[in-house]
Amino acid sequence: MKALVVYKKSLYQIYVEERREPRILQLLEAGDVSVARLRRDHREHLATLSTVRSVLAREGVRARLRYRARADHLQDGDLVVTVGGDGTLLEASHAVASTPILGVNSAPGGSHGFFCAATRRNFRELLRRHMDGDLGAVRFQRLELRVEGREVAPPALNDVLYTHRNPAHTSRYILEVPGGPEEQRSSGLWVAPAAGSTAAIRSAGGRRLPARSRRFQFVVREPFRDEARGCRLVRGLLGRGETLRLRSKMRDGVCYVDGPHIAVRVRYGDVVQVGLHPRPLVLLGLGGR
Description:
- With 289 residues, this protein is an alpha+beta fold.
- It is built from six helices and 18 strands.
- The strands form four sheets. A six-stranded antiparallel sheet has the order 7-6-17-14-9-10, with no helix packed on it.
């Protein structure tokens, strides 16, 4: 078996060891509460990465390491192992078509790991179960984002957020879904498949979907309501074969894919389409979700 290990760098490594950020160093020296966990999470992350590497070697798995910022092509292995948290797994997922992923939460005390079935303590057990064909998996649906008919981003596992480039600015667009079209003003529009239904879209008023659901949902963030015109289409569910469409009424619109790192510019008059991607993502060890 061949495995690709996609790992993150801890905040301590980035800001203290590599960049020597004066403000962070000052806060560490003062024992400030805002940086209280940096060293501890760093040590735990390094210990987890070391454990993953040694376990793979002992089990006869040929492993190559790839820093997550350079994980742009992950198709030449039998397994992808991510070492970090959900952010690391999300970045790796953008470069994966069908290779299964086993997520390892490297510092559970300071890192969110909803998509991560493993930790340092149970990684060997889950790896062996996978090698024996005894580890369950979930095929999570992903989203496909198109602007003016072109696919413009990797598949989204968590969500797509359409909004103005400036978060303090009003988002203006025409939403086209069943029951529409409807011209809206709001703080933006979340779209998420089942995998992302427990994240930001739920905080914005969405609903949690079963992990294996083949539906996706949208929620309008803080819709503007006035006396003359209400906003009816504030949330809804769509299924396979259905597409959410919106026409931008902003010069500086942006679609963010799975967080802040992938930002697709949307111009005035552009048509944005979001639907289910044809290739779901296989995540190991999450059969109980």
